[in-house]
Amino acid sequence: MRKATGHQMLFLSLLNKAQTNLDDTRGRVMAVSKPLIENYFVGALQMRCSVVTDTASGDTIIIDGGAEPERLIAWIENWQGRGPDWSTGPSSDEYSSGDLPKRKVVALVNTHAHFDHSGHIPDLLNNYNVKWYLHKDDTYLQSLAQSSGQSWGFEIPTPAVADENLISGSVMSFGTIDLEILHTPGHTLGGCCLRLLIDGEADHIFVGDTLFAGSVGRTDLPDTGGDFDLLSKSIHDKLWPLADEIIVHPGHGPLTTIGEERMNNPFVGLSANGGAYSRGKYL
User: Fold this and answer.
1) pLDDT tens digits for 84-98?
2) pTM of full prediction above 0.85
3) What class, spelled out in words, does domain 6-19+27-272 have in CATH?
4) What is the 3-state secondary structure (H, E, C) of 122-186?
């Protein structure tokens, strides 16, 4: 098993705290028990793609599969090649020992439509006969994925068109995995945060480029609908009411928690003094 990194040790500490301080007032629909959550830093921009598997059923979703599709497919299907950069799971030997059911990808889901997050969705759709979910307000931005990538010097296939819309305020089921959809515009018009409901542990939330450890997403990118005031309002209205212990998976950079960012984020946290900045750190 790989030696734990500093980020992994931080996560384990946060999770141990969370397990003794869960908010028992949260509503539940069909929370998954002990999911396998994997993070892959993919592409030149090191975007976090997350793969979530229900270890009871094998149902699997890919969140923000924007780059390195061959790597994702090889590991999901055969435990081969360069696996995740971080996961909640066991060692690679245990992965392939048959302890887990055969994984079955049941959906592709995106937090938003910047090319580093969505550019190679067509390659995943060519391999998996599933639907791709995106908020409707990012439809125009998604149509620009190829041209946007090319402006950065990347080869991107013809942009995919989402099959289904993410419905803000709802809990959507993808096989046996439930995600609460929180529409958080500001980085993009259709940006969403995806809360994974988990039994007996802290929930995890996949926030794309809405929120980072110590930062927020940029609001100055062209053709995006970026607006810092709107982003700040989204975070304050949709994320800050959540439990402190929820583990945050940003689109770039290290993991964090809702409590840490609510208290200390210099852009939108309590330490921001009303918000002294107008743009964040990452794409």
Assistant:
1) 999 998 766 666 656
2) yes
3) alpha beta
4) HHHHHHCCCEEEECHHHHHHHHCHHHHHHHCCCCCCCCCCCCEECCCCCEEEECCEEEEEEECCC
